[in-house]
Amino acid sequence: MTGTIFGLVGAALIGIGLFGMLVRRDALLRILSFNLLGGGVFLVFGAVARRGAGAGFGGDPVPQAIILTGIVVAFAATTLAVALVLRLAAAKDRA
Amino acid sequence: MSLLADGFTILCVLAGLVFFAAGTAGLLRFPDTASRLHALTKADHLGLGLVVLGLLPQMDSLAGILRLLAIWALVLLASAATGPMIARLLRRQGGAS
Amino acid sequence: MILGLVADGLLAAGILALALACVATRRAFASAALFIAYGLLLALAWARLGASDVALTEASIGAGLSGVLLLGGVRRLAGLAEPSPDAETGPLLTVLIGIGCAAVALAIGAAVLLLPDPAPSLAPQVAANLATTDLGNPVTGVLMSFRALDTLLESAVVLLAVVCVWALAPEGGWGGVAGPRQPIVRDGPLALLARVLPPLGIVIAIHILWVGADAPGGKFQAAAVLAAMWLMPWMAGLAPAPRIDARWLRLVLAAGPALFILIGLGGALAEGAFLAYPPGWAKPLILAIEIVLTASIAVALALLVMGPPEPPR
Amino acid sequence: MAWDMLPMLAVMLPVLAMVAAVPLGARGAERLTLAYAPVGLALAIGIMLVVQLGGVPIRQELGHWAPPLGIAFRADGLAAAMLLTAALIIGAIAIFARADFGTAAGAVERRHAFAFWPLLLGLWAAINLAVVANDLFTLYVALELLTFAAMPLVCLDGSRATLQAALRYLMFALLGSVLYLLGVALIYGSAGTLDIVLLAQRVRGDIPVMIAIAVMTAGLLAKTALLPLHLWLPPAHAGAPAAASAVLSALVVKGSFVLVLRLWFGVMARVPMPDAAQILAGLGAAAILLGSVAALGQARLKLLVAYSTVAQIGYLFLMFPLLAASAGEVAAKAWTGGVVQAVSHAFAKAAMFLAAGIMASRFGHDRIADLSGAGRAMPVTLLTFALAGLSLMGVPPSGGFAAKWLLLSAAIGAGQWWWALVILGGGLLTGGYVYRVLAMGLRAGDPAPEPAPVAWQRDGIALALALVSVVLGFLPLAAFGLVQIGRLDVAP
Questions:
Q1: Domain limits at D447?
Q2: Do A and D touch, counting CB pairs below 8 Å (3 needed)?
Q3: pTM score, two decimals?
Q4: ipTM of this complex > 0.85?
Q5: In terms of CB atoms within 10 Å, which of A1, A4, C144, D36 comes out highest?
């Protein structure tokens, strides 16, 4: 049940994040929306992991490890996007 | 013994929750940032302190007790630092809420 | 049971409300602040989902470091005084996109509900094979043995991200220190935190790394805490950022992924498959990789938050 | 024998080189890349030989953990072809790029010289990983590695326009990968494995899997820049330095394309989706026609070449309905045609971008209207452009011709003649924009520009790449049998 609830929350977050990414024009808000979207995707994965609980584990460890990897990669992507936005703004400032 | 401990835990955690609720209400209802900040930090310190106190008898090892106390101490330290920082920012912005 | 459901429901409502507020507000600062709160609630959701390792990672990286990064970005963008020249999306288009996104969310929700029951799971296989790795934490077992390739590649991705961020350095900045210069804060609360917290934080990070073999924790969470312990004195102007051409810095960055690959290639030579650990050597090798990787990732995460080197004013 | 190590080495050695490049610094990284390039080429040739002679894919289970718990590398014929393509093109680019990104002995390290070499190595590793990985999540990491390596290449010169192009590219790419990851979650939830070979046996067309394939395909199309998700490509590919444009157009978009193939004809090998395939090919046809028309209207040479990429990507998607609707020899022709198109376009487009770059640096601009006199001043460069153009048009004998002819006859064989019309129409339009450039270049114009010290090697490398794209057309058809090896949609 917990798995399903947060799986549905994940689905909703995906919709919200997608909306923000497509509608917002401010680059930082888009990056934030991308992170909301990513959080939703991880939650869907988390729901899958929770449903696979067994063998004495509270969730299937394989998707849990994958989510962990995914969060770090998503953070790296966010830093890249923020650095690019700042650099672009500085370039505009000078122009 | 365990009944006593459980009762203590329930009482303390409930009391802690009351403080949290009061702090949250203050955050939402108080008119200006300074008093909001005040409500938040004071209520949360006491709230968290009571929750930690209540959970202490539930720990079965010294390490667990130390960890709980460390959490409380770290939160105290963090809010002791952030509260004045927000207040300082407020002063710099001319006291606008 | 019922209490659990109520908790889940409240948590779910809180997460959704914060996410909606995050997208609805047009002020970047408020949005970033809401995002941090969202990340912390998400960490609680992970705990509810029985994924303590993910909860720790979400709290430290998803909420903590991302929050610092985004707030810092908002502040510096405001400093550049760049009025957003782009027009807002028109109302009709907004509604259409909204409908489309709702449809996507519904489709994903339906997919979640329609997943097969009983759910397929690799948990039994992990449990059956965990003993060969001498690890007690199944997630660490997956990350360092069964799917070690992903972890290795991910550490390379993080390193590449540092190269990417540095590649965005403006003209004249190359060879300087990473990130913008921070004003020195000699006293006050930030200075206090920056002095008191790092020793504590480093102990906690080592603890998280050490228990990771058998309990929730591990290199990513420990590295995130270590990075934060470096960033805080940096933000207070007490610890200077390193020069990006410092030899030691680049060696530390490369050491973790390089050691991981070399041990993997050693497995190919000795055991006939990349990343195969010789019998009995699994745990010591994994620990060696984890310790060196923690250092590399901690430095990389801190450098990612600091940003590219900038020309001296 | 340890032949099963080869795909692993083809992935891990460039990763190791990329990692080592950071402490080595710009000059050390440059030399390391040039030293590794022949090794990488040898590995690719070795893999091709082993696959070709053995007739089966090369497989290795990493750490001896068999899927579904572990991860396997699997180099089939498609992977072997792409590995060899990547090795040749990246090796050529590395030599070409020395003039732009080289560091003299004792010189101070410069930003773009420091960044270029690890990025190139990372890109190489990512492409190789994307074609030999057999696990859907490992492929996600490959996609991210590819994005991270490609994005800074777009804006290496640091100008505002390229930074803007890079940001747009990054947003498309991140959205694409996160959608892909969503599909990975749903597929794992449905089938309990991420191994493509196992999925090919297990997957039936239930709803979560179909939704997963839909979002993953959408995400990958954004990364492959199939119309209407192509908007990021022209500014990004046209603004980058010539060496970077060449790898971006030749290889990076192919990485995500191979993933689409893995999904449709690997994971979904038992679940044909003919209607969806018609839509995909319809988008491809629109890309061919609209991309070519846009290329015809461009005033700048590099933008023309970039729009040509948009059009040529369209051809790649014509194979989908042909494969979905037919079997046996017709399907084999469609598969080979699609793969040869990917390979020959890679060589032709790399050559074209390098030629365009050489012209731009010689003239100091890339306005097509002011390129008159190029034929006299730089005949080799213009010849390179022409040869590459012939391959893109599909004029016999060239690799492009072989690809388009295979797709054409597969379309007729499958009874879907309308795609044949698209292929022919696209060829004519391609001829139009290539002719525009050649006609201007051959016009005796103003005094030809000063013979700037463009190293002859650079012309030679571009010409060699163009020649490869042409020579592919001389290969006997049997040589293309390689790419059939290990196809999961025909496995018993």
A1: 281-492
A2: yes
A3: 0.95
A4: yes
A5: C144
